[in-house]
Structure formats: structure tokens, C-alpha cells
Amino acid sequence: MYNRRFCFVAAALAFASSLSGALTWPETELALRPRADGTLPVVGFAFRNETGGSVTITQVQPTCDCTTVELAQKTYAPGEKGSITARLDPKGLSGLVRRTITVSTDEPGSQPQVLTLIADLPEAITYAPHELRWRTGEKPLAKTVDVLVNVPGGIALETAWANDPNFKVELVAVVARSHYRVKVTPPETTGPLQAVILLRANGSVPPGAGLTFSARVQ
Questions:
Q1: What is the per-residue pLDDT across 129-159, written as a single tens digit (0 to 9) for each?
Q2: Which of 22, 60, 147, 168 could make an S-S bridge to 180, C-beta 3.0–4.6 Å?
Q3: Contact 125, 197 (CB under 8 A)
Q4: Residues 25 and 47: beta-carbon distance below 8 Å
Q5: Under a CB-based contact definition with an 8 Å cutoff, are residues 58 and 104 in contact?
Q6: CA angle (71, 72, 74) in 5-degree steps
Q7: Residues 116 and 131 occupy one common structural domain
Q8: 3-class secondary structure, 189
Q9: Helices in the chain by DSSP H: which ranges?
Q10: Cα 129–132–138 angle (5° rounding)?
Q11: Termini Cα distance of the chain
């Protein structure tokens, strides 16, 4: 009875091991912290062959072109360790980004292993503040918004204007391609007014990057 129970448990563990994959991974999810220059560090997903035979990695497939991978070798002997090097290019990305890498092996019955890269990236363009306000009756003096570009290589902003031509708008480059200042002056503050301030870039901008902010008298 004991031997049959032991054999059943051993068989169940072996079956579970085969389903979980031929390779063991201490970490299958890694968080990337942007460097000061906006780039992301290169990371490695370590693994070990825990089977009794050689295991060959047959495919390493990232989900998008923004992720590149490197594998030093494909076949690993029993007990041998390895690592998959992964790079995530943040260009054109912002906010919380998740990208996966699917790893397949030749081990019969094993399931592909999904590895995940996570990066919390700053918005491509941020405004401080995002809205300019004047109180009714306040002196119609100029106020400013700092525009910060948070992508590698920056973005060239060439002009700014208001959808209400009565608002005076001036764009100044504090640091080319990375820090701009927009000065806005309302025509008057005797009653409610509202305008959208628009920016134009010289070249492409990342998808979802906002090029507007608002100004209002209320």
C-alpha cells in the first residue's frame, strides 16, 4: 500500500513538472526602472535545466519589435544554467508598459514559458501646470506653463498658438528638445474666457503624446 501511494505521488510530481516546463525560472517577471537619460536597463531571465536529459530551446518569441532577446546557446545539459538577455526600447512608449517573451523547448509535454517585462514610463510630454487660470477681475498678466519632454532624444517644438486668437501665446526653448516654456496672456479678465493652447512639433511625436493644454478666465 505504501509503495503504491509513493509511486502515485512520484508520478503526479513528475507529471506536474513536465507541464510546468523543462526549465525552472527563479523569476518570470522583471520590472525595469528608467535611467536618467530615459533608456531602460538590460536584464536577464535566469533558468536551469532540472530534467535528467539535455533540453533545447526551440524558440524565443517577443511580442513586439520593441523587445529584443539574446540567447548564448540553445541546448543545455542536465543541471546546466543559462540566461535570456532582454532589452526593451522605450521609444514611443509611455505609461505602464508590459511586454512578454514566450520560450518553447523540445521537452515532450512541456508548456511554453511566458516571461514578462514591466516598465512604468513617464508620459512623453508633461505640463506644469496643465491648465492656466485667471480669476474674473484679476489683472490680465502673463502666466507660464513648463513643457517637459520625457523621451530619449527629445522632441523639437517649433510653435504654440491659441484657438482663440485674442490670447497671446509665446513659446520659449529653455533646453532644446527637452524643456520648453509657454507664456500665455489673456486679452482681458472682465468675464469668463477659455482657450486651448496648441503646440506643433517639428517631426513625429509618440502616439498618445498630448500637444495641448487649456487656459481660462473664470
A1: 999 999 999 999 999 999 999 887 889 999 9
A2: 147
A3: no
A4: yes
A5: yes
A6: 75
A7: no
A8: coil
A9: 2-20
A10: 135
A11: 84
